[in-house]
Amino acid sequence: MWRKFANRALGESLKTAHISGMITRPVRYAWQHVRYVPLWSLLTVSRWRSFETRSAALGRAVGGVMRWFPIARRRFNREVKRVFPEMTRHERNCLRRRMGQNMGQTLFEIYHNAEFHTRQDHFHVSGSGLAAIEAAQAAGKGAIIVSGHFGQWEAVRASLKARGIEVGAVYRRQSNRHYQRRLLAGIEAGGLPIMETGRVGTKTLVRHLRSGGVVAILLDEKHPDGAKLPFLGHPALTSLAAAQLALKYDLPMVPAFGTRIGDGGDFEVDYEAPIDHSDAETMTQAFNDSLSARIREHPDQWYWLLNRWQGA
């Protein structure tokens, strides 16, 4: 009797869940569309204008949103106060607007990555790490480039592709299907293969590196299983995967950054010297220190909404 009752209850529960899924799925898709419409509209209206004008327009739009949107403002203020407690309210407001402008331009450039890659005269490349990557490639070996959500990280891959080195990338899937489609297409235009975070992506990453490929990894996102390492003076959960792979397969691990200069349309692409092989935590900490120094120098060029210190 109890088994019969339990089976009936389970059946009703599954039926209810199925109906609920049928109802919520269209609503979820509709909400995703509504959220995407403002960006789609802005990109469509400015389609026939110059690259610089369209990029600046999206930058101003995102800067305005960042200045007034309550959720983003609260999260931004919380994180900036953690690192720069002496910063005044006016300084934070200006910094938040400038960060939004930079991120808006970055988003536009990634969405139009194929065109962005043709603008090689805007990339000013330097640093000993570039020679280390080229030497590894000449020897038939792979390399790992580590960077963060700072400046325009796609400028790093663009400058290497212009030199005949295609660089794959690791990315995290977006919850909004419209953003996911556009963002993935843009990242793929910058170089292949593109590997999604997760078990399948990790296997592809390992095969790519072992076959002599180069990959770029953004290491400034919170990693639930990461090590607690100082970042901008505070413990942050940080993935050790890049350093572990560099050690396991004897590959150079090169920090590289594309810093916006001038009016934001030009970039200093700096390939730092490869991080000395030691142990995974020491190597990852060296990257954290490098990125932290750049953020302190150009705080408006880092994306402060990553919840970087959450859970640590």
Describe this structure in words.
The protein has 312 residues and is α/β, with parallel strands linked by helices. The protein has two domains: 1-45; 122-301, no CATH class. It is built from eleven helices and nine strands. The chain has helices at residues 2-45, 51-68, 70-83, 89-111, 113-116, 128-138, 154-161, 177-190, 199-210, 241-248, 280-297; strands spanning 123-126, 143-147, 167-171, 194-196, 214-218, 227-231, 234-238, 253-261, 266-271. A seven-stranded mixed beta sheet has the order 1-9-8-2-5-3-4, with helices on both faces. Strands 6-7 form a two-stranded antiparallel sheet. A hairpin with a 4-residue loop joins strand 8 and strand 9 (266-271). The longest helix is centred in the first third of the chain and has 44 residues, at 2-45. The radius of gyration is 22 Å and the shape is globular. The chain starts with a helix and ends in a 15-residue tail after the last helix.
Detail the topology: elements first, then pairings:
Blueprint: H1 2-45, H2 51-68, H3 70-83, H4 89-111, H5 113-116, E1 123-126, H6 128-138, E2 143-147, H7 154-161, E3 167-171, H8 177-190, E4 194-196, H9 199-210, E5 214-218, E6 227-231, E7 234-238, H10 241-248, E8 253-261, E9 266-271, H11 280-297
Parallel strand pairs: 1-9, 2-5, 2-8, 3-4, 3-5
Antiparallel strand pairs: 6-7, 8-9
Q: For the report, how would you describe the main beta sheet?
A: 7 strands, mixed
Straight-line distance between termini: 50 Å
Domain module count: 2
Oligomerization status of the protein chains = single chain
Q: Point out poorly predicted stretches.
A: 1-22
| Broad shape | globular
C-alpha-based Rg, rounded: 22 Å
